[in-house]
Amino acid sequence: MASSQAVHMDMHTRHAIHVRSVFLSDVHLGARECRADLLLDFLHHVHMQQLFLVGDIVDVWNMRRDFFWPQLHNNVLRTLLGKAKHGTRIIYVPGNHDEEFRDLDGTVFGNLEVHRDYVHTTQRGRRMLISHGDEFDANVNCSRWLAALGSGMYDLSLGLNRGLNRVRRAFGFPYWSLATYLKSKVGNAMTYVHRFEEAAAQAAVRRGVDGIVCGHIHRPADTERCGVRYCNTGDWVENCSALIEDHSGELRLWQLADWRAAINAQARVGVAA
Ligand SMILES: [Mn+2]
Question: In the CATH scheme, what is the code of domain 2-272?
Fold first, then answer.
């Protein structure tokens, strides 16, 4: 126990993973399904020069229906602000669940800036439009009640997912996402995802940039659409994924298994040293 703690301490200091930028979205702090535990694990092991919060970080929308704010969610906010205090530049691009913060467009609080959208230039000179993505969602633009209905169905599937994974865990099976499975199986959802991705890519084409980084649909991706790069950071409700830019300027999608493997590899370096 004592030795594993020592390794843990070591990782926090000398053996953290260093990247140039991290892009996170759809954390949904204030919602019961937020995986704040995993996000804290990620944030404690990854050091970044710039952190892009790509919307739906605090789920103000959900908190109005169901006030939920455990200590763990406070710890995430404190960890984020701690990073800003220690030199990480945080660019916050609010989403539709935290749209109240869009009024702060252009505001700078020390190392924390709020923008409606933002163009990030990578170390390799690639220009990426950063936007949460709800503006590409025809349902949200056309009808708010349809979006609310969609959100209700989504909550229901997450609730089912929680129960299912409790049973899977009891029998020793790894975590499995029902919502991701449903989304990949249902044809309509696939059409929706494809249209969303193309709409997002077209926004980047119109801006004359090399690609887009967005979130919103909780579907991590790194692919090409309409001749530009389409990156979706995913979420911290089911996928626990992030997009990172390494020091050479390469963008990479980190799914849960990827960043866990990177942390474990770094820990082994710590033990060897
Ligand atoms: Mn959203």
Answer: 3.60.21.10
Strand partners, 118: 130
* Centroid of ligand 1 to alpha carbon of 190 (angstroms): 17
Higher pLDDT, 12 or 49: 49
**131 CA distance to ligand 1 centroid (A)?**
10
Better-predicted residue by pLDDT, 214 or 165 = 214
- Quick check: 90 and 51 in contact, CB under 8 A? yes
Whole-number Å distance, alpha carbon 56 to ligand 1 midpoint, is 5
Ligand 1 center from residue 133 Cα (angstroms) = 7
> Which neighbouring-strand residues pair with 121?
127
Domain ranges for the chain, please list them. Answer: 2-272
Q: How far is the CA of 135 from the centre of ligand 1 (A)?
A: 9
Ligand 1 centroid – CA 184 distance (Å)? 19
**C-alpha pair distances (Å), 230 with each of 6, 147, 271:** 40, 23, 38
Structure confidence at residue 175 as a pLDDT band (50, 70, 90): confident
* pLDDT higher than 50, residue 10: no
Tell how far the Cα of 104 is from the centroid of ligand 1, in angstroms. 18
Predicted pLDDT of residue 167: 82
